[in-house]
Specification:
By secondary structure, this protein is mainly alpha-helical. Helix content is 64%, strand content 5%. The chain has eight helices and four strands; from the N terminus they run αβαββααααααβ. The strands form two sheets. It has a two-stranded antiparallel sheet with strand order 1-4. A two-stranded antiparallel ribbon has the order 2-3. The chain starts with 9 loop residues before the first helix and ends with a strand.
């Protein structure tokens, strides 16, 4: 008699055809908008970097002054920095507005507390983020991303003329540029590790979940 009991969804769950809820529509939308804006920032950032691959510390720095370090890249003075700065500016504002929407929604929907804040105790299920993933995502959202925005704004003379503390707190425009560079490198490293982990967990399955919002179990 017990063998004939029907439990709704059990058979489908065992065969792997019943998708489990994974990501909300807003999380998916902001994820892909962020991916596109990050690509724009990366391409334009490389263009800006090639125009002057030297870094300094303090308020001023340029050709003929001692540098903090030089990158082994072609020195294309006045090269692709024109279109690069324009694309970087546009991509940055898309990224910032998209990030604000994501963070606001994350607090309102308790997404951060439920999905990212490490649980006080108890094992995590297979669909949850690991402890390392949770801490990494929180660090990116609440430390690395704000640092990139802060140092980016600190490099703008128009912004710092109104809010000078943005750059003086960092030690000068060249300090902001150097810190921004290392923060950007860290973000690129995070994205590469993120892609590697998605690939290891099942690239098609995870990408499909970020498109459809459901993860096949």
């Amino acid at each position: 008699m017990a063998d004939s009991v029907y439990i709704p969804g059990l058979a489908a769950g065992r065969t792997g055809f019943a998708p489990a809820p994974r990501h909300s529509a807003l999380v998916r939308a902001t994820h892909w908008v962020n991916a596109l804006s990050f690509l724009g920032l990366l391409v334009s950032g490389i263009g800006i970097l090639l125009a002057h691959p030297r870094f300094y510390w303090g308020e001023t720095g340029g050709i003929g002054t001692p540098s903090l370090f030089d990158l082994p890249l072609p020195f294309l003075l006045g090269g692709p920095s024109g279109w690069g700065r324009y694309l970087h500016f546009e991509s940055a504002w898309v990224c910032v507005l998209n990030g604000l929407l994501y963070v606001s929604s994350g607090f309102a929907s308790r997404h951060f507390r439920h999905d990212l804040v490490p649980p006080a105790k108890g094992p995590q299920d297979d669909s949850a983020y690991t402890l390392v993933q949770r801490l990494a995502y929180l660090a990116v959202v609440f430390v690395l991303f704000p640092l990139l925005v802060w140092t980016g704004l600190a490099m703008s003379p128009a912004i710092t003329s109104v809010f000078p503390a943005l750059v003086t707190t960092l030690g000068g425009h060249q300090c902001a540029r150097t810190i921004h560079f290392f923060a950007a490198i860290t973000s690129v490293g995070f994205v590469l590790v993120h892609i590697a982990m998605v690939w290891r967990a099942g690239f098609r399955r995870r990408v499909r979940a970020m498109i459809t919002g459901r993860l096949a179990v």
